[in-house]
Each structure stands twice: as structure tokens, then as C-alpha cells.
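Query structure, 199 C-alpha cells:
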């Protein structure tokens, strides 16, 4: 019993350290730099990692452009956004623990950015160790997180646990699994995250 409590305390310390890093980076919300004229827009993003995903989407969520970032550091690229049809769009950078967006409007071949509407959404983070699942999420706007855990029974996933966590800025949960295969489905900020776990 002492070992279990000791491991839980150790893992909670790791979760707290992770959240401290996330909150520390939350002060750097404005990591986009937009420069442009009538013919082109240059997008500069600081602190990207290889494997981050850059997208341009319209407000219906349809992806117009996507690119997997090839190297870590500073991303810099020119775009001609004036050819897009009139409407509302946004750049989205999908990173390990966060999704950053900056909206823009195209109207009669003119592109307008609104830096004040730039957003950062923190993703939920799952980590599993010997059947113990640690879930953390920073929810600065108290956005709800829906958790569903499915167990695999002979190739068919059946719902074993479901909960909705609301009104909390720092979400920390621990789940104990028995031997088997599981699918964890997390929904937050109109996005779904799935993790398969074999223990």
C-alpha cells in the first residue's frame, strides 16, 4: 500500500510539473507574426516542433491547406490568401499539448487579421503506466471535458466508464485499469482525442 501511495505522489508531482510548464508557456499566446500586403501574407510561428500540423480552415471546419512542419524552431512561409473566396478563415497550429488559432477575413481580395481573436486551446494529456491512467488538462475557460473509456471484449469495444468534468481549470484524474485492451475517447472544445491502451 505504501508503494502505491508513493507512486501516486510521484506521478502527481510529475503532472504538477507538466502543468507548470504548460501554464508558463500560456503567457506566450501570441506566437504568430503576420506581415502582408495586397498580394501576399507571410506567416511566422515561433517555437514549432517537427511534426506539428499547420492548417488553413474555413469556419465550417473544411481544411483548405495543411502542412506537416518538417523542422523545429521558427516556421516562416508566404501565402497568397487574396485568391480565397470572401469569408472567414483561420490558421491553426496543432501541437503536442495545444492548438493555436488566428482568424482572418477575406473580403474582395483584401485579407484582415484580428490578433485579439487569437486563441489557444490546451489538449487533454493521457499517460499510462502499469494499468494506471493519468489524465491532465488545462481548461482556462472552464470548458468541459467528456471522458469515455471502452474495454475491448473479443474485438468489440463496450463502454465501461463515462463522465463529464466541468467547472475546473486544472483537470487531474487517475483511472485504474485491469489487464486488457482499452480505447479512451476524450471530447473537449469540439475536438475528439482517442488513445488506445494495451495493458
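Result returned for the query:
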Amino acid at each position: 500500500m505504501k508503494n502505491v501511495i508513493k507512486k501516486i505522489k510521484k506521478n502527481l508531482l510529475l503532472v504538477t510539473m507538466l502543468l507548470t510548464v504548460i501554464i508558463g508557456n500560456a503567457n506566450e499566446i501570441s506566437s504568430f507574426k503576420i506581415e502582408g500586403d495586397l498580394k501576399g501574407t507571410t506567416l511566422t510561428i515561433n517555437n514549432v516542433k517537427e511534426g506539428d500540423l499547420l492548417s488553413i480552415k474555413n469556419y465550417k471546419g473544411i481544411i483548405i491547406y495543411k502542412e506537416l512542419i518538417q523542422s523545429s524552431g521558427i516556421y516562416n512561409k508566404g501565402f497568397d490568401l487574396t485568391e480565397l473566396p470572401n469569408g472567414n478563415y483561420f490558421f491553426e497550429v496543432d501541437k503536442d499539448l495545444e492548438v493555436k488559432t488566428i482568424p482572418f477575413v477575406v473580403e474582395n481580395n483584401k485579407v484582415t487579421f484580428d490578433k485579439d481573436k487569437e486563441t489557444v486551446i490546451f489538449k487533454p494529456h493521457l499517460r499510462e503506466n502499469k494499468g494506471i491512467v493519468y489524465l491532465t488538462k488545462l481548461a482556462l475557460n472552464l470548458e468541459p471535458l467528456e471522458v469515455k473509456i471502452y474495454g475491448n471484449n473479443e474485438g468489440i469495444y463496450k463502454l465501461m466508464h463515462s463522465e463529464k468534468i466541468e467547472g475546473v481549470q486544472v483537470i487531474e484524474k487517475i483511472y485504474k485499469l485491469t489487464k486488457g485492451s482499452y480505447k479512451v475517447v476524450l471530447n473537449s472544445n469540439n475536438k475528439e482525442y482517442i488513445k488506445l491502451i494495451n495493458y
